[in-house]
Amino acid sequence: MADKARIAILGASGYTGAELVRLIATHPGMRITALTADRRAGESMGAVFPHLRHLDLPTLCRIEDVNPDDVDLYFCALPHATSQEVISALPRDRKIVDLSADFRLRDPQVYAEWYGRAHSALDLQEEAVYGLTEFYRDEIRGARLVAGTGCNAATGNYAVLPLLAAGAIDPDEIIIDLKTGVSGAGRAPKEGTLFAEVSEGFHAYNIARHRHIAEFEQEFSKVAGRPVTPTFVPHLLPQNRGILATVYVKGEPAAIHAALAARYQDEPFMVVLPFGEAPATRHVRGSNFCHIGVVADRRPGRAMVFATLDNLTKGSSGQAIHNANLMLGLPETTGLDLAPMFP
Amino acid sequence: MADKARIAILGASGYTGAELVRLIATHPGMRITALTADRRAGESMGAVFPHLRHLDLPTLCRIEDVNPDDVDLYFCALPHATSQEVISALPRDRKIVDLSADFRLRDPQVYAEWYGRAHSALDLQEEAVYGLTEFYRDEIRGARLVAGTGCNAATGNYAVLPLLAAGAIDPDEIIIDLKTGVSGAGRAPKEGTLFAEVSEGFHAYNIARHRHIAEFEQEFSKVAGRPVTPTFVPHLLPQNRGILATVYVKGEPAAIHAALAARYQDEPFMVVLPFGEAPATRHVRGSNFCHIGVVADRRPGRAMVFATLDNLTKGSSGQAIHNANLMLGLPETTGLDLAPMFP
Amino acid sequence: MADKARIAILGASGYTGAELVRLIATHPGMRITALTADRRAGESMGAVFPHLRHLDLPTLCRIEDVNPDDVDLYFCALPHATSQEVISALPRDRKIVDLSADFRLRDPQVYAEWYGRAHSALDLQEEAVYGLTEFYRDEIRGARLVAGTGCNAATGNYAVLPLLAAGAIDPDEIIIDLKTGVSGAGRAPKEGTLFAEVSEGFHAYNIARHRHIAEFEQEFSKVAGRPVTPTFVPHLLPQNRGILATVYVKGEPAAIHAALAARYQDEPFMVVLPFGEAPATRHVRGSNFCHIGVVADRRPGRAMVFATLDNLTKGSSGQAIHNANLMLGLPETTGLDLAPMFP
Amino acid sequence: MADKARIAILGASGYTGAELVRLIATHPGMRITALTADRRAGESMGAVFPHLRHLDLPTLCRIEDVNPDDVDLYFCALPHATSQEVISALPRDRKIVDLSADFRLRDPQVYAEWYGRAHSALDLQEEAVYGLTEFYRDEIRGARLVAGTGCNAATGNYAVLPLLAAGAIDPDEIIIDLKTGVSGAGRAPKEGTLFAEVSEGFHAYNIARHRHIAEFEQEFSKVAGRPVTPTFVPHLLPQNRGILATVYVKGEPAAIHAALAARYQDEPFMVVLPFGEAPATRHVRGSNFCHIGVVADRRPGRAMVFATLDNLTKGSSGQAIHNANLMLGLPETTGLDLAPMFP
Predict the structure, then answer these.
(1) Cross-chain residue pair C240–D200, CB shorter than 8 Å
(2) pLDDT in tens, B107-126
(3) Which of B221, B275, C69, C207 could hold B257 in an S-S bridge, CB 3.0 to 4.6 Å?
(4) Which of B20, B6, B138 is CA-nearest to residue B78?
(5) Using an 8 Å Cβ cutoff, are D207 and D233 in contact?
(6) Residues C296, C299, C300, CA angle at the centre, nearest 5°?
(7) According to its UniProt record, which residues of this chain constitute the active site (chains A, B, C, D) (predicted)?
(8) Is it true that the peptide bond before C28 is cis, omega within 30 degrees of 0?
(9) N-to-C CA span, chain C
(10) Is the pLDDT of residue C209 over 60?
(11) pLDDT (tens digit per residue) in D120-167
(12) Pairwise CA distance, residues A184 & A252, whole Å
């Protein structure tokens, strides 16, 4: 026990916080020394999330009551904007994986445009590494502050980045039709995420103005070496977990499949299906895997790329642990080999 | 059109309000002249409930902006406690069907005990008729104020009242294990009714202290002619609509079935299944029907009675219209012959 | 009663058959005189579909036991291929609305290509009118045999046809990303439509080779006056009812919205939302309405068109009744004014 | 690796087979050397269950192609009746955990009565130990053949057995109202388990004649030392995983809670909630935990006991691994410490 990394989770009363605890429960290299939830300080984690009641966990406390001397690495699962304030106040010699949107966008102007306010911690923004593990592995290994990606952004990036890097598609003709489960919307009560409003129905939301577009533009443009803007339409699925991105591209289908297969062949969590097969969200549920498939369109020179992952795991908390493993010098798959749960 | 009853719905932004509008949309004897929703006054009903956008409806207004001269009958779909205040202020010569719990309990002491406050409109309470149509039809026909029943209460009452009346069961051994869909919890955002908290799971709630127990005790005791208290445990189903009560009783199964079949044989919305068959919530979905089945236990002298209805229709808004039809002198099934929607 | 049209439903044990019965139950101009289901002949409809048990319906019989003298109009809800055989054997002076795929494709070569067999009733194929009511109203009015459209095909056609007709979009750049509920797959047991295989998950199927592509090509090309092929990817939603098509097009968004609004302004079941709003499947559930929305992309000259309908109602059985109303000389909206059921 | 127990799973194409593979994937003391599925022999497990495609697993084969020399322990996840034939043919010196119903009932007469056929392997039946781990731990440790319990039976037994043992309840007044998810019905296509037949609805099935009653009677009577028969009504929930039993008993509520708390205090997977709290299926999803709660009824001398577990894990495959750990001399919780997955 003594040499396990000591972990604090700031914002443990939300779904990503609970998912971190679930994954760390069987992680051999981490132990939780602090859990915070300002509004529920003093309660047990089992009271907030009864599925975790069998675990021996610290009582929820306020952020200011966490002793940094007991922490090797912070997971920060706080709301956007709050995160930058809280992280600014943490000791500068502690490792941090932030799961909010606060440090994802390198350009402060772009941040201000999409989030409607100036960034209040520009030095931290500059220091932060974008947490798309497979594309920033070396930087993450040496990083102190890693910014977890948007869950939708991760899904689309996994499908598209290798294709732009390989020059396999037309950068001006990328359409990302994405469908996501409800848990990504968080645990705060809202009319729009009530059971009766979500079940037995489907709709698009934040059409052409979802904030994850900024992450697509940042990463796509960086890889392509010139500005790239996709069309992006997210939809809400009547299910808890899972994102599926259907990406419409122009290029040779076989070359597209080859580019993805080559790029991900040594990646432990990326599974490229045989050409012509498409993945399903239910087959990655609860796991850190991302399944990718390519199918040729009937029309020559066009293809569909499908990418799926669990928004709470590979899209958020599993990704965060993956990055933390790298930052802590642990084998990177440690604690993340849970098989998907189906049905 | 001129001779259609003019209807005002107070509290039209909740699920029972929307269900009233859905049913009245094809009701040949009613037309809506006012819809209120204080917090959304000035908006169209289509903005609040887009499934109703094809209808030509009055704009939502505040209660005080409804002109009583344009109203023959009020449906009051307001929260408990609010309802008694609002109805107290309505003209005393208007017909009212209240869908709240405010006027269901005849004994003010019992009301105070279960609802935690003194009743503020005792004269109206005295005037109100309990809206269990099949058991209070004559009183309802002549009533000015009808108190819609609890949706769970209706379900259990339909299963049990004829058995107590016929002396077919032991009044001291009634166990009601009830399961209800989520829409009964209303549209106000709460953590407990979020999609991610309800889907793919099941649990009991308000065990042995649900307020509808008071309605059971009131009606059971009245019919039995002596105090009767059931055991009552409600559970939350991961579905929108539908209540199923599984009632465990002691008595001769065949006699139990016969008592129910006899009692309901002329009732337009009560369907007693052949002996040995059990109903399903999905087969009454969206309709005003109640299906009842009786199955013998393996143990002699014991039986299970199953009753199912749609909490928003037969359990609330459909019941309300049924009662309103009687109050308005319309054929009582008018507008309520919609077949259930399956799947 | 005497002057109601006498209706036979061939294939009444499937979901579209049950949906026809549900709708006819409150249709003032139709009455059911025969219901067939070969494997369940002799049973009551209530045994096959308990939600219909309150109705007074004919016992299920075999097709050969239906007396044509008791039938004014047949709804044929049989499987593909079976339908053409059965209809060939019906008297040639009876009106028929076929809900199968058998008579949708005008070109026998195209039929053979997509359905893997030669058509066996070419004269009937020639006679049949494509049942997309809003686009073939006059032909349908005079038709004897109407071929109901594919439910996916209807959804995409509603979104696209007015745009091709108006020249508002580039015909070579149409991408239809469609999501559909499970009931469209029918009631025959298959592993892929089991609850445990469908719930809490999402995936694409029949990618770029779904048979409804043939209907798109037929109708798109006819309206455009030259061959038009869309990209079409259907996905399976974990819900019973509802189709949403997200159509990516190139053209001026405002002109696209205007073209749709103009085309559908007098249509009783087509609702075009204000520019910038998108529809939800749950808001048309169980109804004959189709909601259409247009949202501009961030990229100039591109837009998303969203169309939603209930696959069993507007996409199949409601459409069939709409067409039958026209064929029988009834007001076309008769029996189809049911408001959507939400939640 | 060399000293891991070598595992064969017979019948790997069903849900319990897949669940065994999921759990063994992170089990440090077991490795899979054979997977059988007669109808899918020659296929990869990833083709049958794509969520397992990242694992390095043996190709599916026929039972006769499994070499017993490569197997230390068999998990037999075959259909009832098939199981006894297959196990009869296995070498008598191999350990076996059977997940079917074939060896659960000690009395061959009772077996014949409930399963409609004579038992064909009476010697094995005599040898078999009932796999309710917490009650047969010592026998299981020394057993060669363990009969996994019914998933419903386990749930009810956990709630009731300690109460009968402690004399805390009236043995003649036990009512088990049980609700179970769909995955327990298996992967074979049936109309009754289609998504459209299960979702958005609820009903009772096999009322008072479910085969698990035989297991209740066997275990209840053994512990009570005299014949005990409960009333048992199972219901089908619109969810994949999870069983909740609501057990109505007569006895002192506090004593009932105390008896359960005492009995399970040292059990690694049994969690007794504080008096007055009730569990939820979603809080044990995917885990080997069983949560139990006791709530007093309003009526003196009556209580409700709630027990919940995941039918595929604690109710079946997790239980099987728990028992196998004991049979193999491994620490009994090995590989079973996965936290529940919520949401």
Answers:
(1) yes
(2) 999 999 999 999 999 999 99
(3) B275
(4) B20
(5) yes
(6) 75
(7) 151
(8) no
(9) 34
(10) yes
(11) 999 999 999 999 999 999 999 999 999 999 999 999 999 999 999 999
(12) 33
Q: Could you report the predicted ipTM of this complex, rounded to two decimals?
A: 0.97
C-alpha to C-alpha distance for A307 and A178, rounded to whole angstroms: 9
Residue type, A75: F
Report the neighbours of A using a cutoff of 3 or more CB pairs below 8 angstroms.
B, C, D
Contacts of B163 by beta carbon, 8 Å cutoff, 6+ apart: B169, B249, B251, B256, B259, B260, B305
Interchain CB contact of C204 with D (< 8 Å): no
The burial of D3, by beta-carbon neighbours within 10 Å (0-12 exposed, 13-18 middle, 19 or more buried), is given as exposed
Q: How many CB pairs under 8 A join A and B?
A: 58
**What integer pLDDT is reported at residue C2 of this predicted model?**
53
- DSSP label at A94? S
Q: Tokens at residue A262, please?
A: 């080559």
Q: Which of C61, C76, C151, C290 is catalytic?
A: C151
Q: How far is C125 from chain B (nearest CA, A)?
A: 31
Label residue C27 left, alpha or beta by phi (over 0 means left) and psi (-120 to 50 means alpha).
Answer: beta
Q: Structure tokens of C139?
A: 């032909």
Tokens of B311: 């909490």
Cα A49-A55-A60 angle, rounded to 5 deg: 55
Q: Is A340 on the interface with D (CB under 8 A)?
A: yes
Q: In which residue are the tokens 């900024």 written? A: A214
For the stretch A39-77, what's the b/e string if a residue is b when 16 or more beta carbons lie within 10 angstroms of its beta carbon?
ebbeebbbebbbbbbbbebbebbebeebeeeebbbbbbb
Burial (CB < 10 A; 0-12, 13-18, 19+), residue C28, is: exposed
Sequence letter at residue A51? H
CB contact under 8 A, A175 and C175: yes
Contacts of A95 (CB under 8 A, 6+ apart): A72, A73, A74, A143, A144, A145, A324, A327, A328
**C90 CA: distance to closest CA in chain B (Å):** 30
C270-272/C231-236 β-pairing: unpaired
Q: Residue C129 is encoded by which pair of tokens? A: 């009118």
Structure-block tokens of residue B38: 């204080």
Of the candidates C3, C100, C54, the residue with the CA atom closest to the CA atom of residue C317 = C100
Q: Determine the distance in angstroms separating the CA of A322 from the nearest CA of chain C, rounded to an integer.
A: 24
Question: Known catalytic residue: D151?
Answer: yes
The answer to whether residue C284 neighbours chain A at the CB level (below 8 Å) is no
D248: nearest CA in chain B?
B175
Helix (H, G, I), strand (E, B) or coil at B60: strand
Alpha-carbon distance A49 to nearest alpha carbon in chain B (angstroms): 11
Give me the DSSP letters along C171-235.
TT--EEEEEE-GGGG-SS--GGGBHHHHTT--EE-STTT-THHHHHHHHHHHHHTS----EEEEE
Residue with tokens 């049949």: C128
Chains touching chain C through at least 3 C-beta pairs below 8 angstroms are A, B, D
B301 vs C240: CA distance, rounded Å: 41
> In terms of DSSP H, where are the helices of chain C?
15-24, 45-48, 82-88, 108-115, 122-127, 133-141, 151-165, 195-198, 212-224, 253-264, 318-327
Going by C-alpha positions, the residue among B169, B176, B113 that lies closest to residue D299 is B176
Q: Do B179 and D235 touch (CB under 8 A)?
A: yes
CB atoms within 10 A of CB C172: 11
Q: Chain C contact for B284, CB < 8 A?
A: yes
Q: What is the mean pLDDT of residues A152-164?
A: 98
**Does residue D14 sit at the A interface (CB-CB below 8 Å)?**
no
Assess B118–D contact: CB distance below 8 Å, yes or no.
Answer: no
Structural domains in chain B, CATH included, are 5-149+314-328 (3.40.50.720), 151-311 (3.30.360.10)
Q: For residue D22, which of A339, C197, A284, A269 has the smallest C-alpha distance? A: A339
Question: Given an 8 Å threshold on Cβ–Cβ distance, is A195 in contact with B238?
Answer: yes
